[in-house]
Amino acid sequence: MKTLVVLVLCSLAVICVISDADPDPQTAGDNPAQDGMFVERDEASTVVRQKRAAGQLSLVQLESLREVCEANLGCEHMMDTAGIIAAYTAYYGPIPY
């Protein structure tokens, strides 16, 4: 009985493998643009360069920006006059989050 169960399971596995196999493997690699893996250059650049939506920063995020800016005297002075976001952006670039 065990032999019959093993034989049936093996035959089902073989049928599954055969049915999933590509019947003509050479036609799959003929035109890679049809596979959906490649996009046009302008489409790719818009996807890669998506900027985050302008939103409100949490108090924890503002505090971490403030701590970074306090290490630089120029940034700290600008933080007192122009604000934390303007000072951080001027001295360290765009906000990472």
What are the salient characteristics of this protein?
single chain, 97 residues, mainly alpha, 64% helix, 0% strand
Architecture blueprint of SSEs:
Blueprint: H1 2-20, H2 25-28, H3 41-48, H4 59-70, H5 73-82, H6 84-92
Helix pairs in contact: 4-6, 5-6
What does this entry look like structurally?
- This is Bone Gla protein.
- The protein has 97 residues and is an all-alpha fold.
- The chain has a domain at 56-96.
- Helix content is 64%, strand content 0%.
- The chain is elongated.
- The model has no long low-confidence stretch (mean pLDDT 79).
Measured between the Cα atoms of the first and last residue, the distance is 63 Å
Average pLDDT value?
79
By DSSP, the count of extended strands is 0
- Tell me the overall shape: elongated
Specify the structural class.
mainly alpha
> What integer value in Å does the Rg equal?
29 Å
Strand content: under 5%
- Which parts are unreliable, with pLDDT below 50 for 5 consecutive residues or more? none
Q: How is the biggest beta sheet arranged?
A: none
Q: How much helix, percentage-wise, in residues?
A: 55-70%
Number of helices: 6
Helix/strand order, N-terminal first: HHHHHH
The multimeric state of the shown protein is single chain
GO cellular component, one term: extracellular region
Protein name: Bone Gla protein
Signal peptide: 1-21
Family: Belongs to the osteocalcin/matrix Gla protein family.
